[in-house]
Amino acid sequence: MSLGSLGLCDGLLRSVKDKGYKEATTIQKNLIPAILSGRDIIAGAQTGSGKTAGFALPILHKLNQKENNQKENNQKYYPKVLVLVPTRELARQIYTSFKEYGKYIDLRYAVLYGGAKISTQANRLLSGIDIIVATSGRLLEHIHRKNISLASIEYLVLDEADTILDMGFIHEISQIFEYIPKKRQNILISATLTPALKNLAGQILIKPKLIEADKIAKIDTIQQTLYPVTRERKIELLSYLIGSNNYTQVLLFVRKKELIDELCLVLNKNGLKSEAIHGGKSSGARDRALERFKAGSIRVLVASDIAARGLDIPSLEVVISYDIPHVLGDYIHRIGRTGRAGKNGLAIILSSPEESISLKDLERLLGKAIPKEILPEYAPEKIYSKVKKTKTKQETKKIAGAFGEKKNRPKRSSKKRKITKRDAWRR
Q1: Residue (of 97, 48, 281) closest to 289 by Cα position
Q2: Nearest to 172 by CA among 197, 138, 217
Q3: Same domain, 152 and 298
Q4: Which of 241, 246, 298 lies closest to 273 in space, CA to CA?
Q5: 31-83, pLDDT tens digit by residue?
Q6: CA distance 397 to 411
Q7: Sequence-distant (≥ 6) Cβ neighbours of residue 383 within 8 angstroms
Q8: Which residues constitute the domain of residue 252?
Q9: 206, 263: one domain
Q10: Average pLDDT over the chain, rounded to whole?
């Protein structure tokens, strides 16, 4: 199905044509008509499936269709769309997408997140805005400073709502709900539809339409491979895989922030130019590292799960998970950085024996076992190098017991022995 057949206005069709989009993705085929109909939505869509265009295009279309969208030149714009996201990187990505899709439409946009000058953001808001993309904490700061009123909001989008819950932002989100009209269209987008998310949906959505166009167990464009390795030799195996396969651009995910900088040092010493992005880095430092990675100046970008949310890196082919994330749903976001928009990608996991329980839980979430590739020089000897043979019944009889080896006792004869005088005495 082409995007042109979904009823979008000419300005939007021109912008998507400029970006090279032709066919609608699975989530777009379902999400765009549902939003245009005005219903509340809860949608499960994996990262990289085209979900941002899936909710941005119909919202832009509906705003463009309204008369008097802009007041007279001497009056302000009033925000009609609020998109809430968990991280600044995702906020910037969605803000950029809205601007690119809406470049032929007369609308104004603002992005709000921590780490940037609040005065600059306030001036932008006071000049008049139609669409706001924000993290919850920074938006509340502006509300408390009376830099913005949300009384005219008509559309509320919670993108990566599962992460918003996992990061504990639900309290801030609940506060924001108090400042926006109850009559609005609500759209919840998530990579995983957890029970907690469905509970939240039950509180804020009215008769929502459930869309599960992209099941997490069907990530067909991404080849997943697991390398068993001892914890002590993970860094060595990591360097070997990148070097021997000549991977030129690798996004490496690490669970612990403290380990990220250490890995960067080791990789750089091994000749693999690397930089890090995590919550301890300033917004500017993270932006510069990302731009150098996109430009090919660095080979490996080492990232925490939160910092990497919203990263859009065209044609990224390889994602490596140094470990299994604490929140299993983060794995879907990790591998979603590659294989985007139908392209092929490779997702590698380095798994140590200490992570065996987490691995089983992850495979249960995916609905299948992750294919293993065993390198004998790195694989844990205790688990992978010894092949246990199935014992036959005869071998089982020869197993040594607690008091030494069991002796093969002679079989009892079925013949009856003769009665003797001793037998008569026993009677």
Answers
A1: 281
A2: 138
A3: no
A4: 298
A5: 999 999 999 999 887 666 788 999 999 999 999 987 544 544 444 568 999 99
A6: 14
A7: 228, 353
A8: 222-385
A9: no
A10: 83
